[in-house]
Amino acid sequence: MTTFVDRVVLHATAGDGGHGVASIRREKFKPLGGPDGGNGGNGGDVVLVVDPQSTTLLDYHRSPHRRAENGRPGAGDERDGANGASLILPVPEGTVVTTRDGGVLADLVGPGASVTVARGGRGGLGNKALSSTRRKAPGFALLGEPGESLDVVLELKSLADVALIGFPSAGKSSLVSVISAARPKIADYPFTTLVPNLGVVTAGDVRFTVADVPGLIPGASEGRGLGLEFLRHVERCSVLVHVIDCATLEPGRDPLTDLDVIEAELAAYVPGDLLGGRPLSERVRMVVLNKADVPEARELAEMVTPDLRERGYDVFIVSAVAHLGLKEWTYALARAVEAARVEVASEIVPQRIVIRPKSVDDKGFTVVREMTGDGEVFRVVGERPSRWVRQTDFSNEEAVGYLADRLQRAGVEEALLAAGAVAGSAVLIGPADNAVVFDWDPTMVGGAELLGGRGTDGRLADHSRRTNIERREEFDKRKAAVSRTRAELDAERKSGHWIDPGQDAG
């Protein structure tokens, strides 16, 4: 049964935002108390957090689909919905998080290190939040946004100072068991070790960790045996130790040949760019000739030691069974680890954390004119218009009208006109694989186009307006006309055309 997994694909889905609600307050003596619909809650995030108690990615291998909690919908009486709980997923220290195409999202090192791989959707606004002086009682609310969904690759790369590498059954696990408190499984058949075993070693004042890498064979860097699966655990190690079995009876095997084979595999393996891409062949390396408790093996080890030292390796003849040469070797490891730590510390440049949050209020958008099999379409590309479309309840005509108003105020209609769209043109808003299609009906302008820029008034430039002299002339003309009319009426009265009802006809 598998108990150790160091690479999985996690399907993370954040929670959806809750919908807003459209509600009207109804109280005694207040039949129409105004809108009181609450907002929906935000969806929960999916967060990866380093847990010191976690040592494997097995849980995500068995259950790769993980989803955070959705936000609750709003309610009447201005009650907002509860936010969805974030999903916290524990991972071992040393986990590298990448996208499917290899983009690095995070390298989780250190207890408590975390990264949000999927963000929850925003809750929709209720009609209380949507009310204004222009729209006093909205009969609609906004929908909650869906949460992000992302497939990420989790890859565990052990955090060890020293890696013991070599052919299967070379005695790597035995050496870890005698120089540390680790108790790995030990047997005399190939590929006994199926997972990297970590042990903590103390030599003088220096403490360091040692990992034995499951047996490598020729072609390991290309996927043969277990090598490709576990060579990644060597990437973080600063010191590599070749453990060579001097007592093997396999034909064609000898210490120099074994060393050449493993060196070729190290040279062929390319570490990830996240860790600097430093080739394994450039790490500090030393050779341990194991099983010196066997007389023939010790004789062979002493014979090849001069050749190995000519190649530049520090060579140690040891025996895990007889505890021979272990103290000298562990102190040499401590010196190499200390030197490597000093070198790494001098090369470390304080990392500048650059936060690039995805803006949800981005006002930018573009209109792209495209030709499809169904004819010409105009695609509106931008986060803000797409978000407005996701929040719209298209079964509510008032909500659709509100969307049209928002698009018009944002300048989408002007951009469509500039791009060549006409009434009836197909307009697409939203992601390419799930866009909403509109038959565009331009909004009728209502006089606002007659106004100029801010601080100007086109009526001031209207030269057809009357001056004060013209007004006075017109007043004088009306006054003269009234005087003439009164004189004519008085003359008619005196000539007898008008008779006072109070007087007799005779």
TrEMBL record:
<comment type="similarity">
    <text>Belongs to the TRAFAC class OBG-HflX-like GTPase superfamily. OBG GTPase family.</text>
</comment>
<feature type="binding site">
    <location>
        <position position="173"/>
    </location>
    <ligand>
        <name>Mg(2+)</name>
    </ligand>
</feature>
<dbReference type="InterPro" id="IPR031167">
    <property type="entry name" value="G_OBG"/>
</dbReference>
<feature type="region of interest" description="Disordered">
    <location>
        <begin position="471"/>
        <end position="506"/>
    </location>
</feature>
<feature type="domain" description="Obg">
    <location>
        <begin position="2"/>
        <end position="159"/>
    </location>
</feature>
<dbReference type="InterPro" id="IPR014100">
    <property type="entry name" value="GTP-bd_Obg/CgtA"/>
</dbReference>
<dbReference type="InterPro" id="IPR027417">
    <property type="entry name" value="P-loop_NTPase"/>
</dbReference>
<feature type="domain" description="OBG-type G">
    <location>
        <begin position="160"/>
        <end position="338"/>
    </location>
</feature>
<feature type="binding site">
    <location>
        <begin position="166"/>
        <end position="173"/>
    </location>
    <ligand>
        <name>GTP</name>
    </ligand>
</feature>
<dbReference type="InterPro" id="IPR036726">
    <property type="entry name" value="GTP1_OBG_dom_sf"/>
</dbReference>
<dbReference type="Pfam" id="PF09269">
    <property type="entry name" value="DUF1967"/>
</dbReference>
<feature type="domain" description="OCT">
    <location>
        <begin position="357"/>
        <end position="442"/>
    </location>
</feature>
<feature type="binding site">
    <location>
        <begin position="191"/>
        <end position="195"/>
    </location>
    <ligand>
        <name>GTP</name>
    </ligand>
</feature>
<feature type="binding site">
    <location>
        <position position="193"/>
    </location>
    <ligand>
        <name>Mg(2+)</name>
    </ligand>
</feature>
<keyword id="KW-0342">GTP-binding</keyword>
<keyword id="KW-0963">Cytoplasm</keyword>
<keyword id="KW-0547">Nucleotide-binding</keyword>
<dbReference type="Pfam" id="PF01926">
    <property type="entry name" value="MMR_HSR1"/>
</dbReference>
<feature type="binding site">
    <location>
        <begin position="319"/>
        <end position="321"/>
    </location>
    <ligand>
        <name>GTP</name>
    </ligand>
</feature>
<dbReference type="InterPro" id="IPR036346">
    <property type="entry name" value="GTP-bd_prot_GTP1/OBG_C_sf"/>
</dbReference>
<dbReference type="InterPro" id="IPR006073">
    <property type="entry name" value="GTP-bd"/>
</dbReference>
<keyword id="KW-0479">Metal-binding</keyword>
<comment type="function">
    <text>An essential GTPase which binds GTP, GDP and possibly (p)ppGpp with moderate affinity, with high nucleotide exchange rates and a fairly low GTP hydrolysis rate. Plays a role in control of the cell cycle, stress response, ribosome biogenesis and in those bacteria that undergo differentiation, in morphogenesis control.</text>
</comment>
<feature type="binding site">
    <location>
        <begin position="290"/>
        <end position="293"/>
    </location>
    <ligand>
        <name>GTP</name>
    </ligand>
</feature>
<comment type="subunit">
    <text>Monomer.</text>
</comment>
<feature type="compositionally biased region" description="Basic and acidic residues">
    <location>
        <begin position="61"/>
        <end position="81"/>
    </location>
</feature>
<dbReference type="InterPro" id="IPR006169">
    <property type="entry name" value="GTP1_OBG_dom"/>
</dbReference>
<feature type="compositionally biased region" description="Basic and acidic residues">
    <location>
        <begin position="471"/>
        <end position="497"/>
    </location>
</feature>
<feature type="region of interest" description="Disordered">
    <location>
        <begin position="61"/>
        <end position="87"/>
    </location>
</feature>
<keyword id="KW-0460">Magnesium</keyword>
<dbReference type="InterPro" id="IPR006074">
    <property type="entry name" value="GTP1-OBG_CS"/>
</dbReference>
<feature type="binding site">
    <location>
        <begin position="212"/>
        <end position="215"/>
    </location>
    <ligand>
        <name>GTP</name>
    </ligand>
</feature>
<dbReference type="InterPro" id="IPR015349">
    <property type="entry name" value="OCT_dom"/>
</dbReference>
<dbReference type="Pfam" id="PF01018">
    <property type="entry name" value="GTP1_OBG"/>
</dbReference>
<keyword id="KW-0378">Hydrolase</keyword>
<protein>
    <recommendedName>
        <fullName>GTPase Obg</fullName>
        <ecNumber>3.6.5.-</ecNumber>
    </recommendedName>
</protein>
<dbReference type="InterPro" id="IPR045086">
    <property type="entry name" value="OBG_GTPase"/>
</dbReference>
